[in-house]
Amino acid sequence: MTTNTTPATDTVEQGTRPTALLYAVIGGSLLTVVSAFLAWTWTADFPGDLTYYGSPAPIQFLSVAGALLTLAHALSGLGVKGFRWLTPTGTRKPVWILALGTLAGTWFTVLAIAWVLGGFAHLEPGAYVALVGSLIPALAAYKLPDDSHKAAPAKKLPSWAEIVIIAAAFAIGLFVVTFGIDTDDKEPQLFVTYLIIVGFAATALLKSGLFDRLGTLTANNRQVTLIATAAAAITFPFIQQSGDTYTLIAVNILIFATVALGLNVVVGLAGLLDLGYVAFLGVGAYAAALVSGSTASAFGIHLPFWAAVIVGALASLIFGVVIGAPTLRLRGDYLAIVTLGFGEIFRIAMGNLDGTSGPDITNGPNGIPNIPHLEILGWNFGESHNVGGIVLGAYANYYFLMLLVMALVIVVFARAGNSRIGRAWVAIREDETAAEAMGINGFKVKLIAFALGATLAGLAGTVQAHVNSTVVPENYVFAGPVPPNSAFLLAAVILGGMGTIRGPILGAALLFLIPAKLAFLQDYQLLAFGIALILLMRFRPEGLIANKRAQLEYHDDTAGQAPTDLATAKAGA
Fold first, then answer.
1. I want to staple 75 with a disulfide (CB 3.0 to 4.6 A). Which of 80, 189, 436, 572 is the partner?
2. pLDDT in the model for residue 217
């Protein structure tokens, strides 16, 4: 009688092969880390100076970060205690994506060195060690067997442990964002490598299920999450070592994100395609500039800031109603064409109100300059201030002001989206005919969305006028290489995720920061932007942050259950 030992042999092979591959991933990752402590080139002509031993430059530090993340997930695959929490849905996908990201970032850096300096002869041994070290984990991770599975419920952690994890997550997030904003404009290779590493790392953490696990923790600790969010946002100006240079970028990101949230009411909730939305930002900015004491103002009025905010918001509200009332009976492409026309009419009109082509109100193409800085309760926003021994520049003042404005807009958006009128907007977005058949007044509901979105844009415009200290028509075009404009605002909503709060904020941050840091691409920026949108629509059409309610309704509908929004929205009509 013979015994068949093949199954046992297969079991051993299946167990040892992934283990050996994971050890290869770990070895290659450690080699990549070691390479960062070696010189990658002999000359300091390459931006960042990679000639030092024992002291990684920032661009080398990115390779180290990618390698350490890959190493940590490989240890999770081996079942090392303390690391298993990282991969609740499986090890293979996140390890492979992280290894690819490290490979892409490292090889891009080495090739950039050879390109800038004029050949591979300028490379030092550390660069070759980095090439080999980053290649090994990518090859080994590709051969790993697929172990994807549904995430099991996480073990309940003590309250203090959950708080520590949330605090650590926000601290890491603040560091990552600050690193990207603070990259030197003279080192474009550093920012490109940063985008590669961060993009692959975010995808890997999403595939590993770690983001979902963190989302569960934040949902269970809402107050802690709000405090951590506020603390991270407030801390940003205090850790800036280069003055106001990068704080201004953060201020503009907040303005752009706030306007994108307002557009999200119109596009994301109500489903109205508005291609001239940036005009409402301009209406608020011009209205505030005319009443804020500018020497070029035709009115010669200097109202306090709170009054200027009201004037700007009301002006945008009125324009929203005036434009929306006769046009919102249109649908689809026709509505998009009309709103596009309104945006162009606004820009041209502001350029013609110069006393020659029309009344002397806006100073024509020269705009309204010399808008004075704000002064609230004796606090001059145009001056630096010493807070706790740290000097905060002028733009830090506007940064904190925009945090308050964004918090207000988020509250308004959240309350409106979860209200009866918000459900009516969603019903109109999904099927206007069916919504009206159930008793919803489609025109009234859409007009409210249009007016609210315009008001929020006007609110942000009042702050933008004071930040820039001037308002010119060229700031409010449909499309251009520099945001904010209507095309970029719409792209921010779609890129981030329509109908969500975090989505447009993330989309606006990316679409403002990337062009600001990749100015060297010049005319190729829009080409890269178009390619990125095509890839996004192909691989993630729901946006970077999907609307969970829309996903649930879709799954319910495909299962034969009618979505509930139409039924519950009738009361909001």
1. 80
2. 86
